[in-house]
Design brief:
Strand content: 15-25%
Helix content: 25-40%
Number of strands: 14
CATH class of the largest domain: Alpha Beta
Largest sheet: 8 strands, mixed
Strand order of the largest sheet: 3-4-2-1-5-6-7-8
Number of domains: 2
Order of helices and strands: EHEEEHEHEHEHEHEHEHHEHEHEHEHHH
Shape: globular
CATH superfamily of the largest domain: Glycogen Phosphorylase B
CATH topology of the largest domain: Rossmann fold
Low-confidence stretches: 17-24, 391-402
Radius of gyration: 21 Å
Length: about 400
């Protein structure tokens, strides 16, 4: 069965020409997930159209793989990213007939109602992947996150009730969802060819070992200031490498400015890097840190497993499903610099434990391979389409301009 899938996601892997524009927040786990899944399904013969915001590239249409079209809409202004939904709705209305709509939900309030409306109009099933459950994962910390949890949670719950299937990235999220949803647990994967036998990045060639590496957005969710404060309290004379950028940069700068000069000199910042550079960075790291205050899964954790890099991460959300405490890394309560400093110091001081963890990481990484995971997503699609009653599509849903 050759399916025609319409994929809706507010972020998607950036065009090569747009990598390095940190104000557009182009690189993160959801971006790499949607792109890698799209490529893997394209290789399996699916006809896909991806409608996404233009933050990762210029507006317009371009081809990916053999039979996939990516349509970027909206304005290249991060503060107006929710406005992409208007352009997405227009593009979807002009799209040809579709067998299934797959929505990837992050922190975008407009996406799920948009996807539900498009699926309803097309008379086809809706599948939702929760990259961030607004109701169950976002904590009520401060006005923004509290509003996101309350308002976004209500929007999420309403939209999920119309979905034929919900994909959760971890068992923890699936258990929290409860409700009447038909839920499958399929984590983010890794394109193994990128990470297999990756050489240490020359970017870090002059950085003294041991290296503690953070890779990701500088955003409130990731709480990088806690990692910086922890670094200032460590006994080990390690190097801290921060790879990424984003709206929380001023808070990170403030935390760095508070460090003594001799410690601040051991912090190395590299800003955004293309995803193809991440395997080399992970290969050069002695351990990877992820200090998030909330997290559905954390794609960098699966990438760290493939690289054999032990992890120190927050015990929040679905992270414990990925990082096995004491086996592939250490789990620490979020927001506690002293606990983080102790955990990192302890792991850096125990090379034999790190060596055992490296072996365990590579063994655990077998669970996170896109070649296999894409097949499980395709099974969800086929079951949703097979179970859907035949519904007549409206004429306007069958017009095509792409």
């Amino acid at each position: 069965m050759s399916l025609r899938v319409l994929r809706l996601c507010s972020v998607f892997e950036p065009d090569d020409a747009d990598v390095g524009r940190p104000e557009y927040d182009p690189i993160g786990g959801m971006q790499t997930h949607t792109a890698a899944l799209t490529r893997a399904l394209d290789a399996r013969g699916l006809h896909q159209t991806v409608i996404t915001a233009r933050l990762g590239g210029p507006a317009g249409v371009h081809r990916v793989g053999r039979q996939t079209t990516v349509v970027r809409v909206g304005l290249p202004i991060a503060r107006l990213r929710q406005g992409w939904a208007l352009g997405a709705a227009r593009a979807a209305l002009r799209h040809g007939s579709v067998d299934l709509v797959h929505a990837h939900q992050g922190e975008d309030l407009a996406l799920l109602p948009l996807a539900a409306g498009i699926a309803r109009r097309a008379g086809c099933p809706l599948v939702v992947t929760l990259h961030c459950s607004l109701r169950h994962s976002v904590p009520r910390l401060g006005r923004r996150l509290t509003a996101l949890n309350l308002l976004g949670g209500a929007v999420e719950e309403s939209a999920l009730r119309s979905a034929s299937a919900v994909i959760a990235l971890t068992r923890t999220t699936a258990a929290r969802l409860g409700g009447p949803y038909r839920t499958a647990v399929i984590p983010s994967g890794v394109e193994c060819s990128l990470f297999r036998d990756a050489a240490p990045s020359p970017l870090l060639a002059s950085v003294p070992r041991p290296i503690v590496l953070y890779v990701g957005r500088l955003a409130q969710q990731k709480d990088v200031p806690t990692l910086v404060r922890a670094f200032g309290r460590m006994r080990s004379e390690a190097s801290l490498v921060l790879v990424g950028d984003g709206p929380d940069r001023p808070a990170v700068d403030t935390a760095l400015d508070a460090l003594p000069a001799e410690i601040r000199a051991r912090v190395h910042r590299f800003g955004f890097q293309p995803h193809a550079a991440i395997p080399g960075l992970l290969a050069a790291a002695d351990l990877v840190a992820l200090p998030s205050v909330y997290e559905e899964m954390g794609s960098v954790l699966a990438e760290a497993l493939h690289s054999g890099a032990p992890v120190v991460a927050s015990r929040v959300g679905g992270i414990p499903d990925v990082v096995r405490d004491g086996e592939t890394g250490i789990l620490v309560p979020p927001g506690q610099p002293d606990r983080w400093a102790g955990a990192i110091d302890g792991l850096l001081a125990a090379p034999a434990i790190r060596a055992r963890m490296q072996v365990a990481c590579r063994r655990a990484a077998q669970e996170y391979q896109w070649d296999e995971l894409a097949g499980r997503v395709l099974d969800v699609y086929r079951e949703a389409v097979a179970a859907r009653p035949t519904v007549a599509r409206s004429p306007s849903a069958t017009r095509s301009v792409l």
